[in-house]
Amino acid sequence: MRSLISIEELSRDEIDSLIATANDIIENPKKYGELCRGKKLATLFYEPSTRTRLSFEAAMYELGGNVLGFSEAQSSSAAKGESVADTARTVSCYADIIAMRHPKEGAPYVASQHASVPVINAGDGGHNHPTQTLADLCTISREMGRMSDLTIGCCGDLKFGRTVHSLIAAMSRYENVKFVLISPEELRVPSYVRHGILESGGIPYVETRDIREVMGELDILYMTRVQRERFFSEEEYLRLKDSYILTKDKLSGAKDSLCIMHPLPRVNEISVEIDDDPRACYFKQVLYGKYMRMALILMLLGVDA
Questions:
Q1: Mind telling me the catalytic residues?
Q2: Is the pLDDT of residue 82 over 80?
Q3: Which of 133-172 are b and which e, b meaning 16 or more Cβ less than 10 Å from the residue's Cβ?
Q4: What is the pTM of this model?
């Protein structure tokens, strides 16, 4: 039995296989409509979620399975003090696979050590969110037609943004990938990513505060939210916040083939005027995430198409 807690647990070949399965699901949905009949997914969400929880539920329903679970900690026995380990053991009696989101880093790992069914980490604090990364990788593959020979710009909160760290780790496995890291000094990519992934792997990267000066180089622009609470002073936040809002003006000079991505939810870091631009791919990301979760459920349950 296998669980998925971090994107780094998947080999490049496994990621490519999951993308291939997702592509086949998109092309042949009827082929997959009954593969999980009689199977149950438990969604254990200890904190609010819209896209991730509904995406998992839609994925299981479209595979012909069923869903049970809760959408907040107060709806579960956690409100009575039950441990994650005991919840995992209990829910294993009812379900064939578990998707868990928890505010405490490491909680899905603890669940995976005590559950008797596969556990998928659906987000644990600022730590891991592997299925978001799978959605991102599928988006890149389908929109760009390749996973190599890409210049990827990551913009916004690169220090605390777990999706950026996981994307860098995953895309660093592909050939001729360069990263352009766009952020204020306060929100630079942490040293464990710079040194532990990029520099140790010989992956080229540059850091800049100015999105305009690098826009023309980018094949992919991955936007994230700059959060007020991450700054030491309100004055500094107000000075910098508009620098990292994507507008049509900032897109001048960008490639026609640029793929604009965002893990969502968006607040104001991408102007709504961008939504109708053919290069905007962030709502496609949501859809591709459902297909990748379908592929992952099939893989972890050992179900062949």
A1: 51-52, 80, 101, 129
A2: no
A3: bbbbbbbbbbbbeebeebbbbbbbbbbebbbbbbbbbbbb
A4: 0.92
